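Subject: Sanity check before I submit

Could someone independently write out the structure tokens for this chain? I want to compare against mine line by line before I put it in a report. The sequence has 114 residues.
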Amino acid sequence: MEIDKEKFKRSYPHLAREMESEDNKISVAPHRSDEETGGRSPSKKFEGYNPDIIDFVRRCDTEGQAEEIIEYLEKRREITHEYAAQIRKRLKEKGVRSFGSKKEDDYYLKQAGY
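---
Independent answer below. Compare away.
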């Protein structure tokens, strides 16, 4: 969303003044968790990685949840009808765990070593 600077100033005068003020600027240093080694560099293991339907299905507990994911991605045209049909067939015949073990909360953080 784009907004004209003058319109923003008229609509939010206090916020505009605060944003332009030098008093409220702070620097942000990288977080270091290990004092001895200076901390770890952020993992690049999943950099640029975009989860696919299988990743989402592996987070499901039930076939119903998996079906909702398939339906949603199909409706948004992120997967084709043909691929959705293949996934549904496998889901129905072999179950939700046939796509792999369940991905728990913080799966990607744990895999990256955090």
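---
OP: Matches mine. For the report I'm noting this point. The CA atoms of residues 28 and 113 lie 23 Å apart.
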